[in-house]
Amino acid sequence: MARNVIRLAQLGGYLVRASDPPPGNTMMWCGMRHLTDIRIGYELALKRCG
């Protein structure tokens, strides 16, 4: 679970440096928005191409 949280935060711009604190709400929110954009793009591509 922790690995998935870090991956989601990375989509939002979290850099995962050793000295960084854990990702906060802003990084998680940005990551969720980016993941949603990726999902919508994928669904649109399926409708057009497949």
Automatic annotation (TrEMBL):
Protein's UniProt name: Transposase Tn5 dimerisation domain-containing protein
